[in-house]
């Protein structure tokens, strides 16, 4: 436990949470038109040195960022299953819950459960509610869910012709245990997000006390809107609404001068992060073009902000950026999967 005024750190561990297959032409510029890549949908376990609100006897708060692919594909709506048919092969073993229980590499020899998702996970944060990130929320029966503003409205009603309601499950996450981050006061021109849902008091009571005072603040001339999750600077929520309404990233302080930036779906290919490729645009079937992002200019801005932040911190702090579908990162970093850490 850090003393007063001392910096607080979190640990971050990667979790396998299913795989899906992406056609390159929908994601990057100058794509091979026929190339398809099977990529992970990564989840992350974040551990903070504090007693969870609902379990004061414990000294660690366990948080999971993103839940990956549902273990049981029939849990998706028919329209979602139609979409998922175009992302095959899809694998769901191990899913997020199995990875938490047994760690990387599947079942531990002793069969010992490392973490029980029903009992031991206090908070689930979803980067956004696309099918390959919502996972199986019912596995996390005692967790509070924290999501971007407008997420519950998006799940219930969809958002316009490219994001119809049938591509979401209205009851995907438990509303009585869900808290939306505050709405961000100013949005880019042409960006109209779904309505904010105020938190139920029961849901708020499951979160750290800091949740009662959450507000968006700029950080380091790079990110216009960040929110201090625990109130101690160890874990920041970064507003990155370009990919989907309510999309958020995390910035975790893991050691002195060392940060991990979890980028969710701010891009789907590490070549975009490195500046080697751009965001693909393609026919939207309605006489216009679209990308995989709800607002392509905002998605580009988030990537620029991340690059600006990494550059500004370079030399003093090390910042590692990891996006949800980076298969190259997964291959290079197997020892950093739970119970290993980043
Ligand atoms: Zn997505």
From TrEMBL:
This is Metallo-beta-lactamase domain-containing protein. Its cofactor is Zn(2+). Keywords: Hydrolase, Metal-binding, Zinc. It comes from Thyridium curvatum. Belongs to the metallo-beta-lactamase superfamily. One of its GO terms (molecular function) is metal ion binding. InterPro entries: MBL_superfamily_lactonases (IPR051013), Metallo-B-lactamas (IPR001279), RibonucZ/Hydroxyglut_hydro (IPR036866). Residues 105-136 form the Metallo-beta-lactamase domain. It comes from the Eukaryota.
């Amino acid at each position: 436990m850090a003393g007063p005024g001392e910096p607080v750190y979190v640990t971050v561990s990667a979790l396998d949470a299913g795989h899906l297959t992406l056609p390159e032409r929908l994601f990057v510029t100058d794509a091979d038109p026929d190339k398809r890549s099977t990529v992970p949908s990564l989840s992350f376990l974040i551990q903070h040195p504090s007693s969870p609100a609902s379990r004061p006897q414990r000294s660690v708060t366990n948080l999971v960022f993103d839940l990956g692919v549902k273990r049981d594909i029939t849990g998706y709506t028919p329209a979602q299953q139609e979409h998922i048919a175009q992302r095959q092969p899809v694998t769901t073993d191990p899913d997020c819950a199995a990875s938490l229980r047994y760690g990387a590499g599947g079942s531990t020899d002793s069969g010992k459960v490392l973490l029980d998702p029903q009992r031991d996970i206090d908070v689930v944060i979803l980067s956004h509610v696309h099918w390959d990130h919502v996972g199986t929320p019912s596995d996390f029966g005692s967790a509070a869910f924290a999501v971007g503003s407008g997420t519950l409205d998006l799940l219930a009603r969809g958002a316009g012709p490219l994001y119809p309601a049938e591509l979401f499950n209205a009851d995907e996450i438990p509303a009585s245990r869900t808290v939306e981050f505050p709405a961000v006061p100013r949005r880019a021109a042409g960006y109209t997000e779904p309505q904010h849902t105020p938190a139920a008091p029961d849901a708020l009571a499951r979160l750290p006390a800091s949740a009662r005072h959450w507000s968006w603040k700029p950080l380091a001339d790079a990110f216009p809107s960040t929110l201090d999750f625990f109130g101690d600077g160890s874990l920041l929520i970064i507003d990155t609404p370009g990919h989907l309404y309510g999309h958020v990233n995390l910035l975790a302080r893991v050691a002195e001068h060392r940060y991990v930036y979890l980028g969710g779906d701010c891009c789907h290919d590490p070549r975009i992060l490195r500046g080697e490729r751009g965001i693909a645009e393609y026919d939207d079937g309605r006489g216009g073009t679209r990308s995989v992002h709800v607002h392509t200019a905002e998605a580009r801005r988030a990537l620029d902000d991340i690059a600006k932040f990494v550059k500004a911190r370079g030399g003093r702090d090390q910042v590692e950026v990891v996006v949800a579908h980076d298969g190259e990162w997964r291959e290079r970093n197997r020892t950093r999967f739970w119970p290993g850490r980043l």
